[in-house]
Amino acid sequence: MAENPCTGTSKSRQLGPCSVCGANSIGINFGVLTCMACKAFFRRNAVKLGKTEFICYQNGDCLVTHDLRRMCNCCRLAKCFRVGMQKSSILSESEKQARKDLVDQNRRKREERKLMRHTEKIRLSLNAYSSEKGPKALSPFDQMILTNIFNIYERAYSQKGVEPFTNAPVLKHATVDTFFNDSERRVRVLFDFFKLIPEFNKLPIMDRARLVRTNFGPLFHMNESILNRSSHENFIFSLQAAFGEIGALEVRISFEREREYSYDPILLKLIMIIWCFSLGMNKYTYNIDTSVIYEDTLAIFASESVYVELLWRYLLSRLPSTEYTVKFFNSFVLNVLWLQRTCLSVDRFMLKSERNVKNIVPLLQCIICPSPDSLYATEHTSDMNFGNVQ
Amino acid sequence: MAENPCTGTSKSRQLGPCSVCGANSIGINFGVLTCMACKAFFRRNAVKLGKTEFICYQNGDCLVTHDLRRMCNCCRLAKCFRVGMQKSSILSESEKQARKDLVDQNRRKREERKLMRHTEKIRLSLNAYSSEKGPKALSPFDQMILTNIFNIYERAYSQKGVEPFTNAPVLKHATVDTFFNDSERRVRVLFDFFKLIPEFNKLPIMDRARLVRTNFGPLFHMNESILNRSSHENFIFSLQAAFGEIGALEVRISFEREREYSYDPILLKLIMIIWCFSLGMNKYTYNIDTSVIYEDTLAIFASESVYVELLWRYLLSRLPSTEYTVKFFNSFVLNVLWLQRTCLSVDRFMLKSERNVKNIVPLLQCIICPSPDSLYATEHTSDMNFGNVQ
DNA sequence: CCGAGTTCACACTGTTCA
DNA sequence: TGAACAGTGTGAACTCGG
Ligand SMILES: [Zn+2]
Ligand SMILES: [Zn+2]
Ligand SMILES: [Zn+2]
Ligand SMILES: [Zn+2]
Q1: For residue B287, how many C-alpha atoms fall within 13 Å in the half-sphere facing its CB?
Q2: CB–CB of A127/A137 below 8 Å?
Q3: Contacts of B143 (CB under 8 A, 6+ apart)
Q4: Which residue has the higher pLDDT, A138 or A256?
């Protein structure tokens, strides 16, 4: 196993000097043993032989060494050719394009496979616990529902053109209006997602509008979390610019708490659905002494419990035991409270920013900062597109 | 003088993060504070927006950070535009050309100024000797003539577009035809230069044509020397490819001998003029037993001696004594003989390369390899433009 | 692993403008 | 005159297909 230093595979193996400049070579480049620099030099310059002038300001016999090679690229290029570097080994424009296309194609394939493996893993993990005593396997029906939720959401947001990156430029100049306006598209897609939840879509149109209005804060918050926007540096910038240092911190902590759930491709989506069915809680109690009134409160309750139960079963199937599931629910409730508090802070902040609120696009304005009576108004309800679904 | 780190002018001053990727910025680029990489990226890619496809393989909202910016060109470019980078700040092809021209022009001006300073120095030094016993000062008239010669030549070759460097790409594939065809433009400018010499221009048109034909070899040779092409490595390549190893060597030695005179901005030009007035010597004696016949041989002689005498006075003014001038003339004559020998070799070579000669552009073909009787033909005489001058 | 390619930090040139 | 900002060239470090 004695290693010959000349043929050894050690990293520092010496190949001999560059045929052009004598520096340490890295291998055969364009037909000749050369260093990195001469390789790059030849690729860049051999192709422009006819187009650019190469002039030696000496006598055309300049030395080409490691230290002098930069002095005269005419003589350097001449030497490259002299030692036999092959211009034909340089990929032509079309060859380069072909290679680029190939790389692109391969990358696409790889990513597709990765996504496949990923979703496959999720599907398997849903069943993985079935044989153990702890977790309870999901029924095929539940599995189907969950898979549907996942697919509906992913499809909505991955449809090309739906989300052409309207992110982040706001940066330091962000105010609440630019901050929210930037999100309009994402919000619309989120509403589209809800419309595809049968229980939600069956509700009276005004109830649907009121629900998303009432719960907009947490829904928006969770959705940004799912879309992984919350970790975006510029998002945080915008946050600070729009809500101030303290406000932004509070919002960020909420995001941090949500991140606990982000490892799971379904959990947050499911929680969003449940939240969407929750009645007003204590929002807008500042000057409305009664809670928001719904047309079909019972249907909302029923729907909510359908999904709460589904969540419960899902957690049971994912966690080792009921005990774990209870623990999970405990911390979940804590986070819910945190999030609610945050959203209330934001609401209060918005009230103080009346001037900027006027610049928010109508749809969002009516959702985020409704005048108390507009909670019952029909304006922009149709703009939410809840009217014409399925 | 306490330096505020924020307003300090120190090199390492921090400007804040790149608006695109958050890395360290280097300044305002294309309208926005960015890093070097994003600057280069934007310059490279913004211009090919219409030509190349930019596709995001995610959802079009890829993060653009220092580490991730390479992942998705589409989103990176989108972000560049989003943060306000101005495509209009990128110089267009024509703007770049305009700038290049400007740079070129400035460089030429600078060089001219430098040359002027140089010749001024020479002129001053010419007069500096006047008080010494050795060199004889030039008369104001001689000085004017010499200055004129210098200016006429420099102006002819520095006029924009006259010499767009059609040199050197020939390289290994050079044959005599490509070798000479490459020089057509320079030769035409040389003829223009001669036309501005009054004594030459007053000669009968056919005499003018015959003179430049007869003396083409040495004239061409010296002119390439003045233009400093002879030291160009690619020129030497071409030389070897066109005339073979031995032939090229001989030509190169002639160039080497001429280089002795190249330190002087006037000498070679003056010598060219004198040579231009010299009668046939022994060219084309191979099958014409009489010398070339001129219409006004006397005028040619007279002109030649005007410039020979000027050269003599010039040398007297430059060299410490008459003795030195004589020595100079001796070595000059030797070099003349060398050059003549070289040109004869080239002529012989051209005769053997009939096949390639056919590919030489007509003007040069008729000059370089005239059929014996074509020496008296009028064809291409007008092409030399000797007809319509002044 | 090899040898194509690309990216980009860095160094530099040159123009413009205050 | 020097800072700012266009440009270009170099070469180390990297990716990727075979
Ligand atoms: Zn090298
Ligand atoms: Zn050189
Ligand atoms: Zn950047
Ligand atoms: Zn992307």
Answers
A1: 7
A2: yes
A3: B123, B126
A4: A138
Q: Is the CB of A155 under 7 A from strand C?
A: no
CATH annotation of A101-375: 1.10.565.10
One-letter amino acid at B388 equals: N
Burial class (CB in 10 A: 0-12, 13-18, 19+), B134: middle
Give chain B residues 78-117 with Cβ within 7 A of strand D. 89-91, 96, 99
Helix (H) or strand (E) holding B114: helix B93-128
Whether the per-residue pLDDT at B78 is higher than 90: the answer is no
- Find the A245 Cα to ligand 4 centroid distance in Å: 30
Looking at residue B186, what is its pLDDT? Answer: 80
Lowest mean pLDDT among A48-57, B37-46, B257-266: B257-266
For chain B, the straight-line distance linking the first and the last C-alpha, in angstroms and rounded, comes to 68
What's the pLDDT at A383? 58
What DSSP state is assigned to residue A27?
E
Q: Crossing angle, helix A184-195 and helix A216-226, to 10 degrees?
A: 100
Of residues A385 and B266, the one with the higher pLDDT is B266
Q: What is the pLDDT of residue A374?
A: 47
CA A119 remoteness from chain centre: 17
What is the pTM for the complete model shown?
Answer: 0.39
> What ligand is nearest to the CA atom of residue B40?
3
Identical topology for domains B10-89 and B101-375: no
Say whether the CB atom of A79 is under 7 angstroms from strand D. Answer: no
Whole-angstrom distance, CA of residue B386 vs CA of residue B208: 8
Q: B242 vs chain A: nearest CA distance in angstroms?
A: 17
All structural domains of chain B with their residue ranges: 10-89, 101-375
What tens digit of pLDDT does each residue of A331-380 get?
Answer: 777 777 777 777 777 777 777 777 777 777 777 777 766 554 444 445 45
* Strand B27-29 to B32-34 pairing: antiparallel
* B83 Cα: distance to centroid of ligand 4 (angstroms): 16
State how beta strands B27-29 and A27-29 pair.
unpaired
The CA dihedral of A206, A207, A211, A214, to the nearest 10 degrees, is 60
C-beta within 7 A of nucleic chain D, residues 39-68 of A: 40-41, 44-45, 52
User: What share of chain B in percent tops pLDDT 90?
Assistant: 2
- Residue with CA nearest D12 C1'? A36
Which of A38-47, B31-40, B111-120 tops mean pLDDT?
A: A38-47
**CATH homologous superfamily of domain B10-89?**
Erythroid Transcription Factor GATA-1, subunit A (3.30.50.10)
Q: What is the pLDDT of residue A164?
A: 34
